[in-house]
Amino acid sequence: MCALIGSGPAFFCTAVEGLADGAVKAGLSRQLANTLAARTMLGCADVLVTSSKHPAELKNDISTPGGTTIYGLHELENKGVRGAFMDAIMAAFNRAQTMADQLARDTK
After folding, report:
1. Which CATH number does the domain housing residue 83 bear?
2. Taking the complete model, does pTM exceed 0.85, yes or no?
């Protein structure tokens, strides 16, 4: 699907940028924050590809009761991040459909 494969990398870059910006806000240098955010994404992607677990299971494995991760996840849920990713995929999908329809009309 073009929306995921074609647009997904830009969405991942936006997520990495946001994570790095948060780390800079917390005091890391921009260079270190960018490197750590990208390497975190890379490591997570490797686990997702090689594991038979659903992403939610892996997320739950990382989230310890009362720990930093669950607090951060709560904030992401409050901000609707998961829904925003879903909406971004649907917007890209719908745009691809519109472009395909337009191309079909233009080539007739």
Report:
1. 1.10.3730.10
2. yes
